[in-house]
Protein: GTPase
Amino acid sequence: MDKPLPATILTGFFGAGKTTLLRHILQAEHGEKIAVIENEFGEVPIDNSLLGDRATRITTLSNGCICCSSANELADALLDLLEGIDRGDLDFTRLVIECTGMADPGPVIQTFFSHPAISERFLLDGVITLVDAVHADGQLNEFALAQAQVGFADRILLTKTDIAGESGALVERLQHINARAPVYRVVNGEVDISLLFNVEGFILNDRLTVARPRFRPLIEPQNTIRSIVVNLAKPLELQTVSDVMERLLATYADNLLRYKGILAIDGDSRRLLFQGVQRLYNADWDRDWRDGEPRASVLVFIGVSLPEQEIRDAFAAFE
Ligand SMILES: Nc1nc2c(ncn2[C@@H]2O[C@H](COP(=O)(O)OP(=O)(O)OP(=O)(O)O)[C@@H](O)[C@H]2O)c(=O)[nH]1
Structure:
C-alpha cells in the first residue's frame, strides 16, 4: 500500500488571503506535486486562472459550499482524484483544499475520517486558517463561523499586517480562541512553506503547543469559541480519563471542536497522546517519560460555550 497522500485544508473568512497564499504555495520550490480542490461559492471559478498552471489538477466544486449541502461533493472529488491516480492519469504528492470564506471546517475534516477509501488513502495533515488583520475583529464579533475557523486551526496565519500593523491584541484574541495553534504573520502569502506542510495536526504526536495569553479580556463574550487548558500534576488512571471523556462527549460533543492532550498515566512509563475532533477521538502510547521530566498532563479543549467548570472539576477530582 502506498503512503497516504497528505492533505492540507486552507480556511479563513472572505478575503483573508487564501488564494494569495495558495498561489505562493504553488510557485514555491518544495519538490511537491500539488493537486488543488477549490470551492467557489456559486461563482465562476476565477481563482483557477489566478493560480496558473502549477497545480497538477484543479478540481472546482461549484455547487455551493463544501461544508454543508454538498459534503458529498467533496467526497466525490477526493474519490475522483484517487481514481485518476489508479488509472495512471494523475500523479501528485499532496492535496490542498481551499474552502470558501463561509465554510465550516468541521464537516470538511470529517470527510477525511468518515469514508473508508478516503481515510485510508489520504492523511489529513493540517488545517491552516488565515485571518485578515484588518477585518478580523469585526468578523469574529459578528460570525461564530469565523471563530470556528480559528478554533479548528493547526496553524493560524495573520495576513495584512502590512496595513493593520503588529495587531498584538488580535493575536491575544486568537490565542484565547485557540491556545494550540501558533500564529504567524504573513504578508501577501509570503510564508516559509515548511510551516504549512507536515503539520501532523491529526496524527498523534507530542507537538502540543499551548499559547499563554498575557492578559484576558475583562468581559467574557458569551457563546463564543475559546480554549481551556487543563494542567494536571499527578498521573491519572486510564479508565478514569476515558470515563470523563465519554461523559463530556455524551453531552458536549457538538461544543468541542478540537481537543488534544499529553497524559501521564498511573503505572505506565509511557506518555499517552490523545486528540479528537468533535465525536471522533483516538489515543496512543508514545515514548517513555524521560528521567527528570515531570509526569504532568496537559489537555487543551477548543470549543463553543465549553462547560469550563465541569471540565475542570471532572479532572480536578483526580488531583
Ligand atoms: N495588503 C495586503 N493585501 C493582501 C494580503 N494578503 C492578501 N491580500 C489581498 O487581499 C485580497 C483578498 O485576497 P484573496 O487571496 O483573494 O483572499 P481569499 O481568502 O481567497 O478570498 P475569498 O476567495 O473571497 O474567500 C486580494 O486583493 C489580495 O491581494 C496581505 O498580506 N496584505
